[in-house]
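Quick start: read one record
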Amino acid sequence: MTVIAIPLLVLGMVRPVAVSIKKDWGGLMAYLGGLIMAIALAVAANYIGSERSFEGIRFFAAIAGLAGLTLMAVVLTAAAAITGAMTGERLMSQAPYSRSVIMVMTISLLGVCFGGVSGLLISM
């Protein structure tokens, strides 16, 4: 899911000045990428408590934990989108548009891979 979400989010957030003749799909791509990223992070974050048995969990504690982890996923997605947009804006002033987009996408994918590998190593 993140392989789809990151390019959509980057292409939606890092875009050149819109030409009034063309229809701008950047906002829709940014929303769709952000939604997919938030869903992927929420699913990954909610696996943290999956090792506990259902008998030992209280309903309201489970709902509070689910809400907290989902909120954390939304906040992380917003932080990634803001950071990516700011980085892309600074890169576009120094490099062409295509190179800026490729650099932001590469950094984002490497960050997700690094986070996944470090999370796997911590859980072992």
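The chain has a mean pLDDT of 80.
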